[in-house]
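Q: Okay, next protein. This is TPR domain protein from Nitratidesulfovibrio vulgaris. I've checked the sequence twice, so it should be correct. Can you predict the 3D structure?
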Amino acid sequence: MSITATHDTSSKGRHALPALALLLLMTLSGCAARDMGDGTSPSLMERHATGKSLAPDAPGTPQRQGTPAAEAEAHLQRGLAYLAQDRPELAFEHFSRAASLAPEMVEPRLQRARLLVRRGMPNEAAADIEAVLAASPQHARAWELAGMVAFDRGLLDEAEADFTRAITLDPDLASCYAHLGAVHDYKGRPDLARDVYAAALVRFPQSGELHNNLGVAFSMLGDDASALHHFHEAVVLGASSERSWNNMGLALCRLGRFDEAFEAFRNAGGEAAAHNNLGYFFLVNGDASLAVQHLQRAVELEPRYYVRAAENLKRARLAARFAAGGVPVPAAGPQTGGIAGTPVNKAGVLPPATGKGPGTRTTGAGERVIQ
């Protein structure tokens, strides 16, 4: 999700936020809805999608318990154990065996659907979600997953309705507040996202992820002082500190507190990243001289890695020449970003997507990550 605040053109003299992303965090109950990377074998998922049988003997296959229901329960428990060990491929195998042995059981289908959503396979997950809701229409976690699938398909109104229903059924489902706020962000309504996150924090005051997300909403609304407060709370509470530190740096830049912003950026990604981020901020805000100083230092510190810093430096030098009466500088595109050497205005909202909806998969420092 791209979360780029608008430039402040007021007469207050505050610095406009450049095309830099604010990174949104969310926490799911149970397993994290994020790209599983090397955790899940695509071939396993492909076998499931095409209806092919699973391997005959998954590791840790329990002994036969006498009845299909008992065997299914044993596979479910083994799957949950593998999930707790962060071994989703084996968990998926056991959840599938449980669902095959006892199709009437809700939990194996729900857990398998969650893993499929994590893997970016919403269409495959939808069948399990529909089966769960048919058997248990008041199942809050199933409605949450339905909302995640709807979001992936670009059906934002449907996703909003599903997340709202999940919260109504289970007000303690913390992850749903984050999802619902993200939908409002995607609809261009940070005011509604702010209200959702603020209400959630009353119930979950120790959630660093919600503090971070509320900070993003305040930044989008131009209230950088409030945003800074919540980014600080997120860091204190240990919510994905790299992203929260980065967000704090952006807020401090907008408040003109550049020394503190440098320290925040350095905490996020190191000294070279801090120089690059400040340089890019100055570049976009028209201070080419300071931009050159910081970007030059970023390249000196990481000459091979910071390709983006080098590109920013070239633009900053052109801008300096233009300021002195030279050639005009080419404008940066709206998606070029600049944080830590990679585009970052692709902040994380919901699970990896198929590319059909607003949640299209992104990679790099600003990839969609939900922890």
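A: Here is a summary of the prediction. The radius of gyration is 23 Å. The chain is about 60% helix and 0% strand.
Q: Noted. On to the next one.
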